[in-house]
């Protein structure tokens, strides 16, 4: 599923912790990693001025060894330019299938990449983005207890939009790769007679029936226990509450949509989940015609 992936590092202590705890990606077919440090031209100049290039090379070498010890083949690269543009261009040109980012605010070189920068990547990515959860500012210890464990409990929140449906393809892949539990989750607005729309062509189906159809689609793929949950209320707090109460390790959801109305709803929810989730999140981008292709 994710044979080739890019780890976006900022050379911070938290990024060291991040690369130490992604060994489970091998269960998703991951084999080759590009360890990428992306600097703006201004940052590149100031970094070279403040740190000998040998120091930067040594840090990348250490992170490369950490990844190699987990069984990956690893390439390192330092590039100059806009992070989201560099990631997309490299991924499309060199056939990478996944971006991996973390959740720390401050880096060695001062750029707030694993915080706001990661959000920027998430909302403009041409490939899925795996945002690994680690408590902001506490570094390695928290990553060590909250490392990427997709194979325990996967949460799939859906509003039945086209992009949410597309994200379901990755849930199926995760089940095939050995996920033990999957919760299919839908939050309806509390207004009577105004529940969330289902996909075009399925207008006669109730949300519950649609979730049952998804449940049936997962059966026979693997050995995962599939659970359906429906709630009324606001999506973000309901999703976050469920995650805390049921020890979710990975959330799979759409990152944004093409339609302006859907973008406002799904985009804002995914942004809030990215900021507050206590689990890792796999964000699936929409397909933008004439912009990029997605594997």
Layout of strands and helices, then pairs:
Layout: E1 4-8, H1 13-19, E2 32-39, H2 41-50, H3 53-69, E3 73-80, H4 83-94, E4 98-101, H5 113-124, E5 129-131, H6 140-145, E6 153-157, H7 162-176, E7 181-188, H8 207-218, E8 225-232, H9 235-245, E9 250-254, H10 260-276, E10 280-284
Parallel strand pairs: 1-2, 1-4, 2-3, 4-5, 6-7, 6-9, 7-8, 9-10
Antiparallel strand pairs: 5-10
Helix pairs in contact: 4-5, 9-10
Architecture overview:
- With 295 residues, the chain is an alpha/beta fold.
- The chain folds into 2 domains: 4-145, 3-Layer(aba) Sandwich (Rossmann fold); 153-284, HUPs (Rossmann fold, 3-Layer(aba) Sandwich), CATH 3.40.50.
- Helix content is 40%, strand content 20%.
- It contains 10 helices and 10 strands.
- The protein has helices spanning 13-19, 41-50, 53-69, 83-94, 113-124, 140-145, 162-176, 207-218, 235-245, 260-276; strands spanning 4-8, 32-39, 73-80, 98-101, 129-131, 153-157, 181-188, 225-232, 250-254, 280-284.
- Strands 3-2-1-4-5-10-9-6-7-8 form a 10-stranded mixed β-sheet, sandwiched between helices.
- The protein is globular.
- The termini are close together.
């Amino acid at each position: 599923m994710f044979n080739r992936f890019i780890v976006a590092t900022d050379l911070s202590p938290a990024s060291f912790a991040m690369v130490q705890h992604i060994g489970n990606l091998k269960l998703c077919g991951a084999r080759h990693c590009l360890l990428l440090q992306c600097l703006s031209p201004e940052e590149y100049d100031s970094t070279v001025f403040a740190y000998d290039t040998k120091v930067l090379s040594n840090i990348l070498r250490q992170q490369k060894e950490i990844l190699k010890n987990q069984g990956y083949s690893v390439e390192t690269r330092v590039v100059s330019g806009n992070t989201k543009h560099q990631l997309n261009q490299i991924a499309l040109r060199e056939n990478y299938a996944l971006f991996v980012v973390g959740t720390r605010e401050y880096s060695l070189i001062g750029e707030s990449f694993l915080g706001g920068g990661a959000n920027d990547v998430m909302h403009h990515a041409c490939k899925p983005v795996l945002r690994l959860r680690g408590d902001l500012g506490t570094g390695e210890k928290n990553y060590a207890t909250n490392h990427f464990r997709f194979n325990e409990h996967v949460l799939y929140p859906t509003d039945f939009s086209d992009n949410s449906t597309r994200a379901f393809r990755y849930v199926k892949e995760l089940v095939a790769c050995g996920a033990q539990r999957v919760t299919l989750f839908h939050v309806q607005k509390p207004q009577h007679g105004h529940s969330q729309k289902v996909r075009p062509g399925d207008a006669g189906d109730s949300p519950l029936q649609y979730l049952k159809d998804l449940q049936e689609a997962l059966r026979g793929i693997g050995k995962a226990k599939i659970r359906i949950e429906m709630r009324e209320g606001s999506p973000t707090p309901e999703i976050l509450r469920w995650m805390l109460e049921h020890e979710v390790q990975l959330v799979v959801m759409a990152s944004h949509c093409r339609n302006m109305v859907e973008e406002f709803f799904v985009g804002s929810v995914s942004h809030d989940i990215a900021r507050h989730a206590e689990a890792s999140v796999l964000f699936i981008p929409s397909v933008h015609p004439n912009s990029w292709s997605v594997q």
